[in-house]
Design brief:
Blueprint lengths: L8 E6 L6 E6 L5 H16 L5 E4 L8 H10 L2 E4 L9 H21 L6 H13 L2 E2 L5 E2 H6 L14 E5 L12 E9 L6 E5 L4 E5 L2 E3 L2
Parallel strand pairs: 3-4
Antiparallel strand pairs: 1-2, 5-6, 7-8, 7-11, 8-9, 9-10
């Protein structure tokens, strides 16, 4: 099923040390290299470290000559798993199952449209990166990667009804001053939320929200 933005696939990248995860959505599998380039630029800027190795399966999106040439040019060691051996990439396999399972529950628990599956998956990754993990000494993946704990005071239930205040210059005397939407995600800026408006099927970033709790 296509997402709100007409995406059909996603690719995840996992840091081997902290297990922090990044997720990118695509309309076609051949966009995997461009998403990896996007991820590489982001993570190297944030961490101030270079990616040294990439482990992947034998999917056609990874074994292209273009992908090989890019890794060689960037000095990235490319580790391919043996065919039909998903256990060699167990971390990614478990993470993928966890993302899909959690997103499925979120969609069916709150009842938003199923085309919001990408937002549900993205929210799952966002929350998992900021959840405490016993194996890390009750630290979060985000904390293990960046070295500092992230604010989680803005967490809300996926699919919650929210009222988004309109700009004051749009107010009229007896008309509504807030629009009803559905919380479908977060941004990298705390307390900024992604809100879906069912009537127009658009997703907008809002900060000034009232939650129907």
């Amino acid at each position: 099923m296509a997402s709100t933005a007409k995406q059909i696939y996603y690719v995840i990248f996992i840091d081997d040390y902290s297990h922090k995860c990044w997720i990118y959505f695509m309309q076609k599998k051949d966009q995997t290299l461009s998403k990896f380039c996007e991820f590489k630029a982001l993570v190297e800027k944030e961490s101030r470290k270079k990616i040294k190795a990439l482990r992947s399966d034998n999917g056609g999106e990874y074994v292209s000559q273009e992908f090989k040439d890019f890794c060689a040019a960037e000095g990235i060691k490319w580790e391919l798993m043996a065919p039909h051996s998903p256990q060699q990439n167990g971390v990614a396999e478990r993470k993928n199952s966890m993302i899909v399972g959690a997103a499925r529950v979120m969609l069916h628990d709150q009842g938003p449209p199923l085309h919001l599956w990408a937002e549900a998956c993205n929210t799952t990754v966002y929350l998992q990166n900021r959840s405490l993990h016993r194996i890390l000494g009750m630290k979060t993946l985000e904390e293990d990667f960046f070295g500092k704990r992230q604010d989680v005071g803005h967490f809300r239930i996926f699919g919650s009804l929210v009222y988004c205040h309109m700009k004051k210059d749009a107010w009229k005397k007896f008309e509504l001053i807030a629009e009803l939407g559905i919380l479908v995600g977060y941004t990298d800026t705390p307390h900024n939320y992604q809100v879906h408006f069912p009537t127009s099927r658009r997703i907008v970033v809002h900060r000034d929200l009232n939650f129907d709790e």
